[in-house]
Amino acid sequence: MDKVIRDGMVAVLYSPGFGAGWSTWNTEHPAMLYDPTVVAWVESGKPKDALARLEATLDEKYPRCYLGGMHDLQIEWLPVNTFFKSRSTMALRKSRC
Asked: Could you report the per-residue pLDDT of 15-35, keeping only the tens digit for each?
């Protein structure tokens, strides 16, 4: 699983707030929590002109993925090998980054 790691910290993608989120509806694709292409898109300010191409790439890479929480994505930098929980009203996932 590819991850962006800088200075011992891993970029973890999440969609804050209530409702369907990035990790909630993509439990069969745990790599989406760390996808370097998406991290780069968020870091570059989520440019709208790159969105269609990014969505097509993700659809191909992660079949049947849910992209509804994509517009609200943020990055949380966590130390490598940190255990964390991804919570929502629909799922609780324990992961190690």
From this structure: 887 656 777 788 889 899 999
Helix axes 36-43, 51-61, angle to 10 degrees: 160
Task: Round to whole Å and give the CA distance between 8 and 81.
Answer: 9
With residues binned 3-state (H G I as helix, E B as strand, rest as coil), the percentages for the chain, rounded to 5, are 30, 25, 45
Question: pTM (2 decimals)?
Answer: 0.84
d(CA 56, CA 76): 24
Task: Show the CA angle centred on residue 68, arms to residues 62 and 69, nearest 5°.
Answer: 100
